[in-house]
Design a protein that fits this description.
This protein is of the alpha+beta class. 23% of the residues lie in helices and 26% in strands. Strands 3, 4, 6, 7, 8, 10 and 11 form a seven-stranded antiparallel beta sheet that branches. The chain has a two-stranded antiparallel ribbon with strand order 1-2. The chain has a two-stranded antiparallel sheet with strand order 5-9.
Length: 242
C-alpha cells in the first residue's frame, strides 16, 4: 500500500511538472514599442520558415516527425514581399490568381474566403516566435462561404455614426494595404476555394496599442495577424451601402 501511495505521489508530481512545461508562455508588453516591432518582424520570419502551402493554398506547419512534407516549399521561398512603410508581408501564390482579375478598391464591397489568426510575438526562452494564436476569422472551416463586406476592411458610415468611433477603430490598415496587392476573382459564392495568398500584418499595422473594436470579444492589442484568403469578388460600393 505504501509503495502504491508513493508511486501516486511521484506520478502526480511528474504530471504537474509536465503541465507547467507545456503551459502557454506569459506575455509581458515591452515598454518600448520598438521592441514589440522587432519581435513582430522576427517572429514573422520564423513563421514563414516553418510553414508551407498545401494543394489548396492553406497554410500548413512542417511536421518534424513526418517526412511526407519534406519536399514542400517553405513560405520564405515563395517570394514574400514586404511593404517598407508598414512592415506588412504578402505572398502571391503562383497559378492561383484571376486572369483577368478585378482591382480591389479602397471602399469596395468584398466577398472573401478567409482564415485569419492573431498572434503575440514574444521571446520564449531565447527564441522569438508567435505564441497564443487566437481566431480572428475563419470562413474556410466555418460557414464554407465567403464573408461579405467585413468591417475590418471597410466600416460603413452608419456604423461609425452610431458608435461615435473613428474608422481606425474598426479597420485594419495593414490588411487593407496587403489585400490591395491582389486582384479579385469574379466567381459565385458556391465555388470551391483555391486560396490565392498570404498576408502577414505586424501589430503596428493592425491595432497596435490603440482602442479598437473587440472582434470575437478578444483584445487584439499588440497582436500580429496571418491571413490566408481568396477574394471571390470585389465591387464598387453603392450609395445605399455607404
Amino acid at each position: 500500500m505504501k509503495k502504491i501511495f508513493l508511486f501516486s505521489i511521484i506520478l502526480s508530481a511528474t504530471l504537474s511538472s509536465c503541465r507547467k512545461d507545456e503551459s502557454t508562455p506569459v506575455y509581458t508588453e515591452p515598454e518600448d514599442i520598438a521592441t514589440q516591432n522587432y519581435y513582430d518582424d522576427e517572429a514573422a520570419k520564423k513563421f514563414m520558415a516553418e510553414n508551407y502551402l498545401d494543394a489548396q493554398g492553406n497554410i500548413k506547419a512542417f511536421d518534424a516527425t513526418d517526412s511526407s512534407d519534406d519536399t514542400q516549399t517553405p513560405l520564405t521561398a515563395l517570394n514574400p514581399q514586404t511593404i517598407p512603410s508598414s512592415g506588412v508581408i504578402y505572398i502571391v501564390r503562383n497559378a492561383a490568381q484571376p486572369t483577368p482579375g478585378t482591382t480591389i478598391g479602397d471602399t469596395d464591397v468584398i466577398r472573401i474566403m478567409n482564415k485569419g489568426l492573431g498572434y503575440v510575438a514574444m521571446n520564449v526562452d531565447g527564441v522569438i516566435k508567435y505564441s497564443s494564436p487566437a481566431a480572428f476569422v475563419n470562413t474556410i472551416q466555418g460557414t464554407g462561404v465567403p464573408q461579405v463586406d467585413p468591417m475590418y476592411y471597410y466600416v460603413k458610415n452608419s456604423v461609425m455614426a452610431s458608435s461615435s468611433k473613428s474608422r481606425s477603430y474598426y479597420e485594419m490598415e495593414g490588411f487593407q494595404e496587403g489585400l490591395r496587392k491582389f486582384m479579385a476573382f469574379n466567381i459565385p459564392d458556391s465555388d470551391g476555394y483555391n486560396l490565392q495568398g498570404v498576408i502577414i500584418v505586424p501589430s503596428r499595422a493592425a491595432f497596435s496599442r490603440d482602442e479598437h473594436y473587440p472582434y470575437q470579444n478578444i483584445n487584439w492589442r499588440n497582436r500580429s495577424f496571418v491571413f490566408n484568403f481568396q477574394v471571390y469578388k470585389s465591387s464598387t460600393r453603392t450609395l445605399d451601402q455607404q
